[in-house]
Amino acid sequence: MFTDRLTLRAWVLMLPLLVVMLAVIGWPLADTVRLSFTDARLVGTGGAFVGVENYTGMLGSRNFRKALVATLTFSVWSVAAELCLGVLVGLLLNQRFYGRALLRALMILPWALPTVVNATLWRLIYNPEYGALNAALTQLGLADSYQSWLGQPGTAMGALIVADVWKNFPLVALIALAALQAVPRDIQAAATSDGANAWQRFRHVTLPYLVGPLMVALVLRTIEAFKVFDLIWIMTRGGPANSTRSLSLLVYQEAFAFQRAGSGASLALVITLIITVLAGAYLALMRRAAGQGG
Amino acid sequence: MEHRSLGFAIFVHVAALGVALTVLAPLGWLFVMSVSSPADLSAKPLHWWPDSIDLSRYRQLLTPETGAAFLASLRNSIEVAAMATLGALLVGIPAGWAASRNPKLGWTLGAVIATYMLPPVALSVPLYLILAKLGLLNNVFGLALVYLSILAPFVTWLLKAGFDPIPRDLEQAAAIDGANLWQLLRIVILPLALPVVATALIFAFLLAWDEFFYGLLFTSNQDAKTLSVAIADLAGGRVSDYGLIATAGVIAALPPVAVGLLMQRALISGLTNGGVKG
Protein backbone atom coordinates (compact mmCIF):
# COMPACT_ATOMS: atom_id res chain seq x y z
CA MET A 1 0.00 0.00 0.00
CA PHE A 2 2.64 2.45 1.12
CA THR A 3 4.83 1.86 -1.90
CA ASP A 4 1.80 2.25 -4.19
CA ARG A 5 1.03 5.60 -2.63
CA LEU A 6 4.65 6.61 -3.12
CA THR A 7 4.52 5.61 -6.76
CA LEU A 8 1.31 7.55 -7.25
CA ARG A 9 2.91 10.59 -5.64
CA ALA A 10 5.92 10.23 -7.93
CA TRP A 11 3.65 10.20 -10.95
CA VAL A 12 1.86 13.32 -9.76
CA LEU A 13 5.24 15.06 -9.40
CA MET A 14 6.22 13.87 -12.86
CA LEU A 15 3.00 15.10 -14.46
CA PRO A 16 3.84 18.79 -15.12
CA LEU A 17 7.02 17.80 -16.96
CA LEU A 18 5.21 15.20 -19.03
CA VAL A 19 2.48 17.68 -19.97
CA VAL A 20 5.06 20.25 -21.04
CA MET A 21 7.04 17.66 -23.00
CA LEU A 22 3.90 16.51 -24.75
CA ALA A 23 3.00 20.08 -25.69
CA VAL A 24 6.37 21.32 -26.96
CA ILE A 25 7.94 18.07 -28.22
CA GLY A 26 5.51 15.16 -28.51
CA TRP A 27 2.76 16.96 -30.36
CA PRO A 28 5.02 18.95 -32.73
CA LEU A 29 6.92 15.76 -33.60
CA ALA A 30 3.68 13.90 -34.36
CA ASP A 31 2.49 16.82 -36.46
CA THR A 32 5.78 16.85 -38.38
CA VAL A 33 5.11 13.20 -39.23
CA ARG A 34 1.62 14.10 -40.46
CA LEU A 35 2.86 17.09 -42.47
CA SER A 36 5.54 14.99 -44.12
CA PHE A 37 2.83 13.07 -45.99
CA THR A 38 1.13 16.24 -47.25
CA ASP A 39 1.92 19.02 -49.67
CA ALA A 40 1.21 21.64 -46.97
CA ARG A 41 2.62 25.13 -47.41
CA LEU A 42 3.91 27.14 -44.46
CA VAL A 43 1.30 29.84 -45.01
CA GLY A 44 -2.11 29.28 -46.51
CA THR A 45 -4.28 26.22 -46.95
CA GLY A 46 -3.55 22.96 -45.13
CA GLY A 47 -2.08 20.45 -47.53
CA ALA A 48 -3.57 17.36 -49.11
CA PHE A 49 -2.32 13.82 -48.52
CA VAL A 50 0.37 12.92 -51.05
CA GLY A 51 1.68 9.63 -49.66
CA VAL A 52 5.43 9.17 -49.64
CA GLU A 53 5.95 11.61 -52.51
CA ASN A 54 7.89 14.06 -50.33
CA TYR A 55 10.24 11.32 -49.19
CA THR A 56 10.93 9.89 -52.63
CA GLY A 57 11.25 13.34 -54.15
CA MET A 58 13.58 14.55 -51.43
CA LEU A 59 15.75 11.45 -51.10
CA GLY A 60 16.23 11.26 -54.86
CA SER A 61 17.19 14.92 -55.21
CA ARG A 62 20.68 16.17 -55.87
CA ASN A 63 20.23 18.77 -53.15
CA PHE A 64 19.67 16.10 -50.53
CA ARG A 65 22.67 14.03 -51.58
CA LYS A 66 24.88 17.09 -51.67
CA ALA A 67 23.70 18.23 -48.22
CA LEU A 68 24.18 14.74 -46.81
CA VAL A 69 27.75 14.65 -48.09
CA ALA A 70 28.42 18.15 -46.71
CA THR A 71 26.97 17.18 -43.31
CA LEU A 72 28.98 13.95 -43.19
CA THR A 73 32.16 15.73 -44.24
CA PHE A 74 31.68 18.38 -41.59
CA SER A 75 30.77 15.86 -38.86
CA VAL A 76 33.47 13.28 -39.52
CA TRP A 77 36.34 15.75 -39.82
CA SER A 78 35.25 17.98 -36.93
CA VAL A 79 34.63 15.14 -34.52
CA ALA A 80 37.78 13.23 -35.50
CA ALA A 81 39.92 16.35 -35.07
CA GLU A 82 38.22 17.25 -31.80
CA LEU A 83 38.83 13.78 -30.38
CA CYS A 84 42.47 13.54 -31.45
CA LEU A 85 43.32 17.05 -30.33
CA GLY A 86 41.23 16.62 -27.18
CA VAL A 87 43.05 13.45 -26.10
CA LEU A 88 46.47 14.94 -26.83
CA VAL A 89 45.70 18.10 -24.87
CA GLY A 90 44.10 15.99 -22.10
CA LEU A 91 47.35 13.99 -21.83
CA LEU A 92 49.26 17.27 -21.75
CA LEU A 93 47.08 18.71 -19.00
CA ASN A 94 47.71 15.56 -16.97
CA GLN A 95 51.46 16.36 -16.87
CA ARG A 96 53.07 18.61 -14.31
CA PHE A 97 54.06 22.05 -15.61
CA TYR A 98 53.98 25.70 -14.59
CA GLY A 99 50.60 27.30 -15.18
CA ARG A 100 48.72 24.01 -15.37
CA ALA A 101 45.70 25.27 -13.38
CA LEU A 102 45.62 28.40 -15.50
CA LEU A 103 45.66 26.45 -18.77
CA ARG A 104 42.86 24.20 -17.49
CA ALA A 105 40.81 27.30 -16.71
CA LEU A 106 41.52 28.71 -20.18
CA MET A 107 40.04 25.58 -21.75
CA ILE A 108 36.65 26.66 -20.41
CA LEU A 109 36.68 29.82 -22.53
CA PRO A 110 35.98 28.45 -26.04
CA TRP A 111 33.33 26.14 -24.57
CA ALA A 112 31.63 29.07 -22.82
CA LEU A 113 31.72 31.36 -25.85
CA PRO A 114 28.22 31.44 -27.38
CA THR A 115 28.02 29.53 -30.68
CA VAL A 116 26.85 32.64 -32.51
CA VAL A 117 29.75 34.70 -31.19
CA ASN A 118 32.19 31.97 -32.16
CA ALA A 119 30.81 31.87 -35.70
CA THR A 120 30.89 35.67 -35.96
CA LEU A 121 34.43 35.84 -34.62
CA TRP A 122 35.72 33.33 -37.18
CA ARG A 123 33.82 35.02 -39.97
CA LEU A 124 35.73 38.19 -39.10
CA ILE A 125 39.03 36.30 -38.88
CA TYR A 126 38.47 34.83 -42.36
CA ASN A 127 37.34 38.15 -43.86
CA PRO A 128 38.75 38.38 -47.41
CA GLU A 129 39.69 42.08 -47.21
CA TYR A 130 40.57 42.86 -43.60
CA GLY A 131 40.64 39.46 -41.86
CA ALA A 132 43.30 38.54 -39.33
CA LEU A 133 44.13 35.23 -41.03
CA ASN A 134 44.98 36.89 -44.34
CA ALA A 135 46.95 39.58 -42.55
CA ALA A 136 48.89 37.07 -40.45
CA LEU A 137 49.71 34.80 -43.41
CA THR A 138 50.94 37.61 -45.62
CA GLN A 139 52.87 39.36 -42.85
CA LEU A 140 54.61 36.08 -41.98
CA GLY A 141 55.40 35.56 -45.64
CA LEU A 142 53.34 32.37 -45.84
CA ALA A 143 50.99 33.73 -48.50
CA ASP A 144 51.34 36.25 -51.32
CA SER A 145 47.81 37.51 -51.52
CA TYR A 146 44.57 37.75 -49.55
CA GLN A 147 42.09 34.90 -50.02
CA SER A 148 38.35 34.57 -49.63
CA TRP A 149 38.49 31.62 -47.23
CA LEU A 150 34.72 31.33 -46.91
CA GLY A 151 34.03 32.29 -50.51
CA GLN A 152 35.84 29.55 -52.41
CA PRO A 153 34.58 25.94 -52.49
CA GLY A 154 38.06 24.56 -51.83
CA THR A 155 38.51 26.24 -48.44
CA ALA A 156 35.03 27.04 -47.08
CA MET A 157 34.35 23.65 -45.51
CA GLY A 158 37.82 23.45 -43.99
CA ALA A 159 37.40 26.94 -42.54
CA LEU A 160 34.10 25.92 -40.93
CA ILE A 161 35.66 22.77 -39.48
CA VAL A 162 38.53 24.76 -37.95
CA ALA A 163 36.04 27.11 -36.26
CA ASP A 164 34.06 24.16 -34.88
CA VAL A 165 37.16 22.30 -33.71
CA TRP A 166 38.54 25.37 -31.94
CA LYS A 167 35.33 25.73 -29.94
CA ASN A 168 34.88 22.06 -29.08
CA PHE A 169 38.26 20.36 -28.63
CA PRO A 170 38.72 21.93 -25.16
CA LEU A 171 35.57 20.14 -23.99
CA VAL A 172 36.98 16.80 -25.12
CA ALA A 173 40.30 17.66 -23.48
CA LEU A 174 38.60 18.33 -20.13
CA ILE A 175 36.65 15.06 -20.39
CA ALA A 176 39.86 13.19 -21.25
CA LEU A 177 41.69 14.87 -18.35
CA ALA A 178 38.98 13.85 -15.88
CA ALA A 179 39.23 10.26 -17.13
CA LEU A 180 43.03 10.30 -16.91
CA GLN A 181 42.90 11.46 -13.33
CA ALA A 182 40.95 8.31 -12.50
CA VAL A 183 43.87 6.09 -13.59
CA PRO A 184 45.42 4.72 -10.37
CA ARG A 185 49.01 5.87 -9.94
CA ASP A 186 50.22 2.53 -8.54
CA ILE A 187 49.18 0.65 -11.71
CA GLN A 188 51.14 3.18 -13.75
CA ALA A 189 54.13 2.69 -11.46
CA ALA A 190 53.83 -1.10 -11.56
CA ALA A 191 53.73 -1.07 -15.38
CA THR A 192 56.80 1.14 -15.43
CA SER A 193 58.76 -1.13 -13.08
CA ASP A 194 57.71 -4.10 -15.22
CA GLY A 195 59.55 -2.40 -18.07
CA ALA A 196 56.58 -1.16 -20.11
CA ASN A 197 57.51 1.73 -22.38
CA ALA A 198 55.49 4.91 -22.72
CA TRP A 199 53.38 3.64 -25.63
CA GLN A 200 52.68 0.28 -23.90
CA ARG A 201 51.67 2.11 -20.74
CA PHE A 202 49.31 4.34 -22.72
CA ARG A 203 47.87 1.44 -24.72
CA HIS A 204 47.33 -1.04 -21.88
CA VAL A 205 47.00 1.04 -18.70
CA THR A 206 45.69 4.47 -19.65
CA LEU A 207 43.54 3.82 -22.73
CA PRO A 208 41.05 1.47 -21.02
CA TYR A 209 40.13 4.31 -18.64
CA LEU A 210 39.70 6.72 -21.55
CA VAL A 211 37.53 4.59 -23.79
CA GLY A 212 34.21 4.95 -21.92
CA PRO A 213 34.20 8.75 -21.46
CA LEU A 214 35.57 9.27 -24.97
CA MET A 215 32.83 7.12 -26.48
CA VAL A 216 30.29 9.35 -24.78
CA ALA A 217 32.06 12.46 -26.06
CA LEU A 218 32.33 10.93 -29.52
CA VAL A 219 28.65 10.21 -29.92
CA LEU A 220 27.44 13.43 -28.26
CA ARG A 221 29.72 15.47 -30.50
CA THR A 222 28.65 13.50 -33.57
CA ILE A 223 24.98 14.18 -32.83
CA GLU A 224 25.68 17.86 -32.28
CA ALA A 225 27.76 18.09 -35.47
CA PHE A 226 25.08 16.31 -37.47
CA LYS A 227 22.52 18.91 -36.37
CA VAL A 228 24.83 21.82 -37.26
CA PHE A 229 23.00 24.98 -38.27
CA ASP A 230 24.11 28.14 -36.38
CA LEU A 231 27.79 28.01 -37.34
CA ILE A 232 27.16 27.47 -41.06
CA TRP A 233 24.25 29.87 -41.24
CA ILE A 234 26.36 32.70 -39.88
CA MET A 235 29.65 31.92 -41.63
CA THR A 236 28.61 30.87 -45.15
CA ARG A 237 24.79 30.52 -45.38
CA GLY A 238 25.60 27.18 -47.04
CA GLY A 239 27.70 28.70 -49.80
CA PRO A 240 29.66 28.98 -51.97
CA ALA A 241 27.56 27.12 -54.56
CA ASN A 242 25.82 25.24 -51.72
CA SER A 243 29.05 23.40 -50.94
CA THR A 244 28.61 23.86 -47.18
CA ARG A 245 24.81 23.56 -47.04
CA SER A 246 24.11 21.07 -44.23
CA LEU A 247 20.93 19.02 -43.90
CA SER A 248 19.55 21.36 -41.23
CA LEU A 249 20.13 24.34 -43.53
CA LEU A 250 18.39 22.50 -46.34
CA VAL A 251 15.32 21.93 -44.13
CA TYR A 252 15.33 25.58 -43.16
CA GLN A 253 15.39 26.67 -46.80
CA GLU A 254 12.79 24.13 -47.89
CA ALA A 255 10.29 24.76 -45.07
CA PHE A 256 10.81 28.43 -44.30
CA ALA A 257 12.44 30.16 -47.27
CA PHE A 258 10.50 28.24 -49.93
CA GLN A 259 7.59 27.61 -47.52
CA ARG A 260 7.25 23.96 -48.56
CA ALA A 261 6.30 22.72 -45.08
CA GLY A 262 5.43 19.18 -46.15
CA SER A 263 8.64 18.44 -47.98
CA GLY A 264 10.70 20.20 -45.29
CA ALA A 265 9.04 18.01 -42.67
CA SER A 266 9.93 14.83 -44.53
CA LEU A 267 13.55 15.87 -44.74
CA ALA A 268 13.57 16.81 -41.05
CA LEU A 269 12.35 13.33 -40.20
CA VAL A 270 15.06 11.70 -42.29
CA ILE A 271 17.64 13.67 -40.29
CA THR A 272 15.88 12.65 -37.09
CA LEU A 273 16.08 9.01 -38.15
CA ILE A 274 19.81 9.24 -38.80
CA ILE A 275 20.38 10.93 -35.44
CA THR A 276 18.21 8.35 -33.68
CA VAL A 277 20.49 5.63 -35.03
CA LEU A 278 23.45 7.59 -33.66
CA ALA A 279 21.67 8.03 -30.33
CA GLY A 280 20.93 4.30 -30.25
CA ALA A 281 24.63 3.64 -30.72
CA TYR A 282 25.27 6.07 -27.88
CA LEU A 283 22.96 4.23 -25.49
CA ALA A 284 24.34 0.83 -26.51
CA LEU A 285 27.90 2.00 -25.91
CA MET A 286 26.95 3.53 -22.58
CA ARG A 287 25.37 0.29 -21.50
CA ARG A 288 28.40 -1.72 -22.56
CA ALA A 289 30.72 0.69 -20.77
CA ALA A 290 28.56 0.37 -17.64
CA GLY A 291 28.57 -3.42 -18.01
CA GLN A 292 32.34 -3.44 -17.95
CA GLY A 293 32.11 -1.80 -14.55
CA GLY A 294 33.77 1.49 -15.48
CA MET B 1 56.18 10.59 -14.93
CA GLU B 2 58.86 8.75 -13.02
CA HIS B 3 61.72 9.57 -15.36
CA ARG B 4 61.10 13.14 -16.44
CA SER B 5 64.06 14.24 -18.47
CA LEU B 6 64.82 17.89 -19.03
CA GLY B 7 63.92 17.50 -22.69
CA PHE B 8 60.50 16.14 -21.82
CA ALA B 9 59.86 18.99 -19.38
CA ILE B 10 60.77 21.54 -22.04
CA PHE B 11 58.53 19.78 -24.56
CA VAL B 12 55.59 19.85 -22.11
CA HIS B 13 56.02 23.55 -21.41
CA VAL B 14 56.33 24.45 -25.09
CA ALA B 15 53.23 22.40 -25.93
CA ALA B 16 51.28 24.00 -23.08
CA LEU B 17 52.27 27.44 -24.33
CA GLY B 18 51.12 26.47 -27.82
CA VAL B 19 47.74 25.31 -26.56
CA ALA B 20 47.31 28.46 -24.48
CA LEU B 21 48.05 30.65 -27.50
CA THR B 22 45.69 28.65 -29.71
CA VAL B 23 42.88 29.18 -27.23
CA LEU B 24 43.66 32.79 -26.42
CA ALA B 25 44.58 34.27 -29.80
CA PRO B 26 41.07 34.29 -31.38
CA LEU B 27 39.50 35.52 -28.13
CA GLY B 28 42.13 38.18 -27.67
CA TRP B 29 41.60 39.32 -31.25
CA LEU B 30 37.85 39.63 -30.66
CA PHE B 31 38.58 41.96 -27.77
CA VAL B 32 41.25 43.93 -29.65
CA MET B 33 38.84 44.43 -32.57
CA SER B 34 36.24 45.82 -30.18
CA VAL B 35 38.60 48.54 -28.90
CA SER B 36 40.47 49.35 -32.14
CA SER B 37 39.56 52.28 -34.33
CA PRO B 38 38.02 51.47 -37.72
CA ALA B 39 41.19 52.83 -39.35
CA ASP B 40 43.35 50.35 -37.41
CA LEU B 41 41.12 47.45 -38.43
CA SER B 42 41.19 48.27 -42.14
CA ALA B 43 44.89 49.13 -42.27
CA LYS B 44 47.21 47.11 -44.49
CA PRO B 45 49.38 45.74 -43.03
CA LEU B 46 46.92 45.18 -40.23
CA HIS B 47 47.50 46.96 -36.90
CA TRP B 48 47.49 44.12 -34.38
CA TRP B 49 47.56 46.53 -31.51
CA PRO B 50 45.50 49.76 -31.59
CA ASP B 51 47.27 53.13 -31.36
CA SER B 52 44.70 54.20 -28.82
CA ILE B 53 41.91 52.40 -27.02
CA ASP B 54 38.59 53.21 -28.68
CA LEU B 55 35.63 52.50 -26.42
CA SER B 56 33.12 54.33 -28.58
CA ARG B 57 31.29 51.15 -29.73
CA TYR B 58 30.60 50.08 -26.17
CA ARG B 59 29.13 53.53 -25.58
CA GLN B 60 27.24 53.37 -28.86
CA LEU B 61 25.67 49.96 -28.13
CA LEU B 62 24.92 50.54 -24.46
CA THR B 63 23.37 54.01 -24.56
CA PRO B 64 19.63 54.11 -25.27
CA GLU B 65 19.82 56.81 -27.95
CA THR B 66 22.24 55.04 -30.28
CA GLY B 67 21.88 51.42 -29.19
CA ALA B 68 18.11 51.01 -28.89
CA ALA B 69 17.93 47.91 -31.09
CA PHE B 70 20.88 46.25 -29.36
CA LEU B 71 19.57 47.03 -25.87
CA ALA B 72 16.15 45.68 -26.84
CA SER B 73 17.73 42.40 -27.96
CA LEU B 74 19.73 42.26 -24.74
CA ARG B 75 16.55 42.72 -22.73
CA ASN B 76 14.69 40.14 -24.83
CA SER B 77 17.46 37.60 -24.33
CA ILE B 78 17.38 38.12 -20.57
CA GLU B 79 13.58 37.92 -20.43
CA VAL B 80 13.26 34.83 -22.61
CA ALA B 81 16.10 33.01 -20.84
CA ALA B 82 14.72 33.91 -17.39
CA MET B 83 11.18 32.82 -18.20
CA ALA B 84 12.26 29.59 -19.86
CA THR B 85 14.63 28.79 -16.99
CA LEU B 86 11.93 29.43 -14.40
CA GLY B 87 9.45 27.26 -16.30
CA ALA B 88 12.00 24.47 -16.71
CA LEU B 89 12.81 24.51 -12.98
CA LEU B 90 9.12 24.50 -12.03
CA VAL B 91 8.49 21.27 -13.91
CA GLY B 92 12.00 19.88 -13.53
CA ILE B 93 12.40 20.01 -9.74
CA PRO B 94 9.40 17.78 -8.87
CA ALA B 95 10.07 15.46 -11.80
CA GLY B 96 13.78 15.16 -11.10
CA TRP B 97 13.11 14.43 -7.45
CA ALA B 98 10.43 11.85 -8.24
CA ALA B 99 12.71 10.11 -10.74
CA SER B 100 15.58 10.17 -8.28
CA ARG B 101 13.51 8.55 -5.51
CA ASN B 102 11.58 6.08 -7.66
CA PRO B 103 13.87 4.01 -9.90
CA LYS B 104 10.73 2.54 -11.43
CA LEU B 105 10.17 5.87 -13.17
CA GLY B 106 13.60 5.81 -14.71
CA TRP B 107 12.27 4.92 -18.15
CA THR B 108 10.08 8.03 -18.27
CA LEU B 109 13.12 10.14 -17.61
CA GLY B 110 15.00 8.16 -20.24
CA ALA B 111 12.31 9.05 -22.76
CA VAL B 112 12.48 12.72 -21.76
CA ILE B 113 16.26 12.78 -22.12
CA ALA B 114 16.08 11.01 -25.48
CA THR B 115 14.12 14.00 -26.84
CA TYR B 116 17.24 16.06 -26.23
CA MET B 117 18.76 14.39 -29.27
CA LEU B 118 16.00 15.58 -31.59
CA PRO B 119 17.16 18.14 -34.13
CA PRO B 120 15.19 21.39 -33.72
CA VAL B 121 14.25 21.23 -37.41
CA ALA B 122 12.06 18.20 -36.62
CA LEU B 123 9.82 20.37 -34.42
CA SER B 124 10.16 23.75 -36.08
CA VAL B 125 7.33 23.67 -38.63
CA PRO B 126 4.50 22.66 -36.24
CA LEU B 127 5.87 25.02 -33.58
CA TYR B 128 5.81 27.83 -36.13
CA LEU B 129 2.24 27.02 -37.16
CA ILE B 130 0.94 26.82 -33.57
CA LEU B 131 2.74 30.03 -32.50
CA ALA B 132 1.23 31.77 -35.54
CA LYS B 133 -2.23 30.50 -34.60
CA LEU B 134 -1.85 31.65 -30.99
CA GLY B 135 -0.49 35.04 -32.07
CA LEU B 136 2.78 34.28 -30.25
CA LEU B 137 5.20 34.73 -33.15
CA ASN B 138 7.70 37.50 -32.48
CA ASN B 139 6.76 37.33 -28.82
CA VAL B 140 9.04 36.70 -25.83
CA PHE B 141 6.46 34.42 -24.14
CA GLY B 142 6.11 32.32 -27.27
CA LEU B 143 9.87 31.96 -27.62
CA ALA B 144 10.27 31.09 -23.92
CA LEU B 145 7.61 28.40 -24.33
CA VAL B 146 9.51 26.91 -27.26
CA TYR B 147 12.77 27.03 -25.28
CA LEU B 148 11.16 24.74 -22.71
CA SER B 149 11.59 21.96 -25.26
CA ILE B 150 15.36 22.34 -24.85
CA LEU B 151 15.61 23.41 -21.21
CA ALA B 152 13.12 21.14 -19.45
CA PRO B 153 14.73 17.77 -20.36
CA PHE B 154 18.20 19.16 -19.70
CA VAL B 155 17.29 20.62 -16.31
CA THR B 156 15.41 17.52 -15.18
CA TRP B 157 18.35 15.30 -16.03
CA LEU B 158 20.80 17.60 -14.25
CA LEU B 159 18.58 17.83 -11.16
CA LYS B 160 17.96 14.08 -11.00
CA ALA B 161 21.71 13.44 -11.08
CA GLY B 162 22.16 16.08 -8.37
CA PHE B 163 19.37 14.74 -6.15
CA ASP B 164 20.64 11.14 -6.29
CA PRO B 165 23.46 11.57 -3.73
CA ILE B 166 21.21 13.30 -1.19
CA PRO B 167 20.54 10.61 1.47
CA ARG B 168 17.00 9.29 1.68
CA ASP B 169 17.08 8.60 5.46
CA LEU B 170 16.41 12.26 6.20
CA GLU B 171 13.18 12.43 4.28
CA GLN B 172 12.08 9.05 5.63
CA ALA B 173 12.68 10.26 9.18
CA ALA B 174 10.77 13.45 8.47
CA ALA B 175 7.93 11.47 6.91
CA ILE B 176 7.70 9.25 10.00
CA ASP B 177 7.61 12.39 12.13
CA GLY B 178 4.47 13.30 10.21
CA ALA B 179 5.77 15.95 7.84
CA ASN B 180 3.60 16.43 4.76
CA LEU B 181 4.98 16.65 1.26
CA TRP B 182 5.27 20.43 1.26
CA GLN B 183 7.06 20.51 4.63
CA LEU B 184 9.31 17.71 3.46
CA LEU B 185 10.24 19.65 0.37
CA ARG B 186 10.70 22.98 2.10
CA ILE B 187 12.50 21.90 5.29
CA VAL B 188 14.43 18.82 4.26
CA ILE B 189 14.91 18.55 0.52
CA LEU B 190 15.36 22.06 -0.83
CA PRO B 191 18.04 23.27 1.61
CA LEU B 192 20.14 20.22 0.74
CA ALA B 193 19.36 20.47 -2.95
CA LEU B 194 19.87 24.21 -3.27
CA PRO B 195 23.38 24.01 -4.79
CA VAL B 196 22.11 21.52 -7.37
CA VAL B 197 19.15 23.74 -8.22
CA ALA B 198 21.41 26.78 -8.51
CA THR B 199 23.73 24.93 -10.89
CA ALA B 200 20.79 23.79 -13.02
CA LEU B 201 19.43 27.34 -13.06
CA ILE B 202 22.70 28.80 -14.32
CA PHE B 203 23.24 26.17 -17.02
CA ALA B 204 19.65 26.43 -18.20
CA PHE B 205 19.97 30.20 -18.47
CA LEU B 206 23.16 29.89 -20.50
CA LEU B 207 21.60 27.28 -22.77
CA ALA B 208 18.75 29.67 -23.53
CA TRP B 209 21.23 32.55 -23.91
CA ASP B 210 23.13 30.52 -26.52
CA GLU B 211 20.07 29.47 -28.54
CA PHE B 212 19.87 30.77 -32.10
CA PHE B 213 17.76 28.58 -34.41
CA TYR B 214 14.32 29.10 -32.85
CA GLY B 215 15.13 32.75 -32.22
CA LEU B 216 15.91 33.21 -35.92
CA LEU B 217 12.68 31.48 -36.96
CA PHE B 218 10.20 32.89 -34.49
CA THR B 219 11.27 36.52 -33.97
CA SER B 220 11.39 39.34 -36.46
CA ASN B 221 11.93 42.69 -34.73
CA GLN B 222 12.84 44.49 -31.52
CA ASP B 223 9.75 43.13 -29.76
CA ALA B 224 11.30 39.71 -29.32
CA LYS B 225 14.55 39.41 -31.27
CA THR B 226 17.24 37.92 -29.04
CA LEU B 227 20.89 38.89 -28.73
CA SER B 228 22.18 35.92 -30.75
CA VAL B 229 19.86 36.79 -33.65
CA ALA B 230 20.84 40.46 -33.42
CA ILE B 231 24.53 39.54 -33.62
CA ALA B 232 23.91 37.27 -36.61
CA ASP B 233 22.11 40.18 -38.26
CA LEU B 234 25.11 42.43 -37.61
CA ALA B 235 27.56 39.81 -38.91
CA GLY B 236 25.51 39.10 -42.03
CA GLY B 237 24.50 42.68 -42.72
CA ARG B 238 26.32 45.55 -44.34
CA VAL B 239 27.98 46.83 -41.21
CA SER B 240 31.27 48.23 -42.39
CA ASP B 241 32.78 48.62 -38.91
CA TYR B 242 33.90 45.14 -37.84
CA GLY B 243 34.74 46.52 -34.42
CA LEU B 244 31.04 47.07 -33.79
CA ILE B 245 30.28 43.41 -34.52
CA ALA B 246 33.15 42.36 -32.26
CA THR B 247 31.86 44.61 -29.47
CA ALA B 248 28.42 43.02 -29.61
CA GLY B 249 30.14 39.62 -29.48
CA VAL B 250 32.19 40.57 -26.43
CA ILE B 251 29.08 41.77 -24.58
CA ALA B 252 27.15 38.58 -25.45
CA ALA B 253 30.08 36.41 -24.39
CA LEU B 254 30.62 38.07 -21.00
CA PRO B 255 27.92 36.30 -18.94
CA PRO B 256 28.72 32.72 -20.03
CA VAL B 257 32.47 33.28 -19.89
CA ALA B 258 32.23 34.75 -16.38
CA VAL B 259 30.06 31.86 -15.24
CA GLY B 260 32.38 29.34 -16.88
CA LEU B 261 35.40 30.69 -15.04
CA LEU B 262 33.63 31.05 -11.70
CA MET B 263 32.03 27.63 -11.84
CA GLN B 264 34.94 25.59 -13.18
CA ARG B 265 34.55 22.84 -10.63
CA ALA B 266 30.82 22.23 -11.10
CA LEU B 267 31.35 22.46 -14.82
CA ILE B 268 34.10 19.87 -14.98
CA SER B 269 32.21 17.42 -12.77
CA GLY B 270 29.19 17.94 -15.02
CA LEU B 271 31.32 17.21 -18.06
CA THR B 272 32.66 14.00 -16.59
CA ASN B 273 29.13 12.82 -15.88
CA GLY B 274 28.75 12.78 -19.61
CA GLY B 275 27.15 15.78 -21.04
CA VAL B 276 26.70 19.40 -20.29
CA LYS B 277 25.80 20.65 -23.74
CA GLY B 278 28.79 21.69 -25.84
Automatic annotation (TrEMBL), chain A:
It comes from the Bacteria. Residues 68-284 form the ABC transmembrane type-1 domain. The chain crosses the membrane at residues 12-30, 67-93, 105-125, 165-184, 205-223, 265-285. GO terms for biological process: transmembrane transport. It is found in: Cell membrane. PROSITE patterns: ABC_TM1 (PS50928). Coiled coil: none annotated. InterPro entries: MetI-like, MetI-like_sf. It holds the Pfam family BPD_transp_1. It is a multi-pass membrane protein. GO terms for cellular component: plasma membrane. Keywords: Cell membrane, Membrane, Sugar transport, Transmembrane, Transmembrane helix, Transport. Belongs to the binding-protein-dependent transport system permease family. This is Multiple sugar transport system permease protein. It comes from Salipiger aestuarii.
UniProtKB/TrEMBL annotation, chain B:
Residues 74-263 form the ABC transmembrane type-1 domain. Its main location: membrane. Pfam families: BPD_transp_1. It comes from the Bacteria. It is found in: Cell membrane. The chain crosses the membrane at residues 7-32, 80-99, 106-129, 141-163, 184-209, 242-263. GO terms for biological process: transmembrane transport. InterPro entries: BP-dep_ABC_trans_perm (IPR050901), MetI-like (IPR000515), MetI-like_sf (IPR035906). It is a multi-pass membrane protein. Belongs to the binding-protein-dependent transport system permease family. This is Multiple sugar transport system permease protein.
